[in-house]
Design a protein that fits this description.
single chain, 219 residues, alpha/beta, Arc Repressor Mutant, subunit A, Oxidized Rhodanese, domain 1, 11 helices, globular
């Protein structure tokens, strides 16, 4: 192989990192790891304009990181390959490992994270087999429908006051959301604890759960 061909290869590799070199595009990828969404939905969740969201999605599409298909009058975006979700997890893990500044930002963003009791994926799996746990999915319902931990209950934070009394007493509740950079499971943990339930927080996202070899459910 000529040197020029090798340089061309690395230019193609660089297209992926270039497409992900923007914080808004990384957040869009993070959101799409949870469920397919329209431009309008992504813009609302990421709190950026529809026009800017569309531009960022086009960059991701050109790098073949996302797909787009028409659903009625809307364009529905999804990840082009499960490896895109894995890549995002690896980027986040590496950043949290190497960039100490992230911890201070997480402390400001997830203000209750040091007040919570945590549980590992292995402990969750063992508790599921022993039927000792109730898994609480604190994400929006469309994300739950797209995929969730086996047997989990969909309980977004704003629905907890209405539905909390339907949860069984005598079992530990395990909350989870989009992972370590998501605050929903923190808020759910604090609120459920206030109702008198024993609660532990799972930091892992669905992608990380699957990477450990565990299955998820859909629907």
């Amino acid at each position: 192989m000529a040197r020029g061909d090798k340089e061309v290869l690395f230019r193609y590799f660089a297209e992926i990192s270039k497409a992900l070199s923007n914080p808004h595009r990384l957040e869009l990828v993070d959101l799409l790891t949870q469920a397919p969404r329209t431009v309008e939905q992504l813009a609302e969740l990421a709190q950026i304009s529809i026009a800017n969201t569309s531009q960022h999605l086009q960059v991701l599409k050109q790098a073949r990181l996302v797909n787009c298909q028409r659903e009625g009058k809307y364009q529905l975006y999804s990840l082009a390959d499960p490896l895109v979700a894995v890549l995002w997890v690896d980027i986040r893990r590496l950043a949290q490992l190497r960039l100490g500044e992230i911890e201070a930002v997480l402390d400001r963003y997830r203000t209750h994270r040091h007040d919570l009791a945590y549980i590992s994926m292995r402990e969750v799996w063992q508790g599921m087999q022993a039927e000792e746990l109730v898994l609480i999915d604190a994400r929006p319902r469309e994300e739950f429908t797209a995929g969730h931990l086996p047997g989990a209950v969909s309980l977004p934070v704003d629905s907890i006051p209405l539905l909390v009394r339907e949860l069984p007493m005598g079992k530990t509740l395990v909350t989870y959301c989009r992972g370590s950079v998501c605050v929903d499971a923190d808020d759910a943990s604090i609120l459920l604890s206030a109702y008198g339930y024993p609660v532990r927080r799972l930091e892992a996202s669905l992608t990380e759960w699957q990477l450990e070899g565990y299955e998820i459910e859909k629907g």
